[in-house]
Amino acid sequence: MILLQEVNLAAVFEENEGLEVTRENAKELRDFYRGGVQQKAKAEKEFQEKGYPVAMKLYLSSNELFSTLLEYIDRDSAEYNLFEGTSILFFPNLLVADNHLKMGRIHDAMGRQRPAYRNWKRALSLVRRSLESERTEWGLALQQELLLLLAPKKD
Taking a C-beta distance cutoff of 8 angstroms, is the pair 33, 92 a contact? Predict the structure, then answer.
């Protein structure tokens, strides 16, 4: 059993390292998940280095892969049975929410508040969907961060 405190972005990245999956070579739902995680990992690196245009493209690519998957499986799970005897951390809703949070931060840094706000609203919706499936500290922390970003500004 996986402790819900141990569910985090770094653990998801670690589980999905290895042979790179692209949209073109993704055949099964697990390929779309792995590819989405891998694109997100690249986006995070660019985001940390303030390579915002590249990060934005990678977040969008990650979301495309996850959206294909979410058409078929829309619940997050701390122990998703990938195949017999193998379970993975499976959080497509939370990962897409985090992508939208970061895309909102990029828009905000560029002075584009409306797109930032739209991304954060979308992220909050996805975090809530994730929390309906699995209540993780990661999800709760992301929800709190988004609520602060969406709160009316006091001048």
Answer: yes
Angular region, 50: left φ>0, alpha ψ -120 to 50, beta rest: left
Q: What radius of gyration do the chain's Cα atoms show?
A: 15
Question: What is the pLDDT, as a whole number, of residue 2?
Answer: 44
pTM of the model: 0.88
Q: Which amino acid is at 148?
A: L
Phi, psi of 86 (to 5 degrees): -125, 115
Kindly state the helix (H) or strand (E) to which residue 27 belongs, with its residue range. none
For the segment 67-79, what is each residue's pLDDT rounded down to a tens digit? Answer: 999 999 999 988 8
Residue with tokens 């059993």: 1
| Residue recorded with tokens 């792995």 | 34
For 4-150, CATH number out of 1.25.40, 3.90.1200, 2.60.40, 1.10.10 equals: 1.25.40
